[in-house]
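Section 3.1: Structural characterization of target chains.
Under the original work plan, the team committed to producing a structural model for every single-chain target entering the pipeline before any wet-lab resources were allocated. The record below documents one such target. The sequence was received from the expression subgroup and is listed exactly as submitted; it comprises 411 residues.
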Amino acid sequence: MKNYLRFLSRCFRLSFVGDARYYAWMFLLTSVVLLGVNAYCKQLVAGLATTGMTDQVSWGFYIANFTFLVGMAAAAVMLVIPVYIYRNRELHDLVIFGELFAVAAIIMAMLFVSVDLGRPDRFHHLMLRFNFPSSMLTWDVVALNGYLLLNLHICGYLIYCAYMRRAPSKIFYIPFVFVAIAWAISIHTVTAFLYSGLGGRPFWNSAVIAPRFLASAFAAGPAFLVLTLSALKAFTTYQVSAKAFMTLRNIITVALTINMFLLAAEAFTEFYTDSAHGASARYLFLGLHGRTALVPWIWSAIALNLVAMVLLYTPLSRRVAILQFACVLLIVGIWIEKGMGLIVPAFIPTPLGEIVEYLPTRNETFVTLGIWALGLLIYTILVRITVPVLSGRLVFDRSFASATAEHHPQP
């Protein structure tokens, strides 16, 4: 226990140490977090009236980001599968960075749900009415919290074993890894079922919602890891092989292709049948009765994803710089598609035929930026701690432990 507490103490101190670039990055994130806290305090006082949400459009920017981040959290499974099932040793250490990002993404997702509550002081009412197993929302709560605990255990155990310079016992983490594979798929599937199970929103009543969620997640998640590994390679001494980048490139290419195919299949069904239930899709892609607030969003997302897919299929993406550019494009494109392009249109028009458009307010945007900054702050600290451990620069000092034991002998 003393060794573990000393490990935590050293990690805590290390998180405050870095070069000028590290301090500038942390200062920027902290400033944005404080702006987000200030914006949320205004929302706490005035209520959800500070957001662009209304009685007609009751889910907006917050739930859109929640949906996107749940998928990003599931991205760790795309590295776990090739490492532990196909024994791809090139990605073995890199799995930890995926798991660490899953922790940060789940924390952000939970924060977005929290700020979406109109009366957070009554949050405990949700726990008093824990309607399990009939409520899909309850399943989502269990899935998210369970996945967070799984990733905390896996990451914490592997990093601590690396710190102690001993091989991890397979019985303490391999079973949890395979459970995490199934759990990662379940968190996004359950979230998709939350939407597709709402009969009053025909735009979501599709069997391909869950596969679309998984395909987009398995594209955007590894794409974010490519950017993370690129930053580690550029700003630290941590070595990332070219084969690791190419493996991630292949995963992203396949997943993005499947996502675009499912989006096209969904659009064909909505427009070819031309049913009354297609009004939400027409509003999203073409506008409805002169209302076109979301049309620029969805076509921008499609353009970004198409450009990224073309780049990934060409030999140009074998260059890391081009691969990074494609990853940025698809992350932004999928964020729009799964956020503003999926959540908001289901509310327009309303079941009564009203068309009430939604756009996020300035205060809502600041709260969102604050949560993203906090998540990146957490992820930066976790990576800052992990890199020295994996590279052997932060390890258990046995001579120090022996000297301590001599000065403080056991009775």
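Residues 400-411 have pLDDT under 50 and may be disordered.
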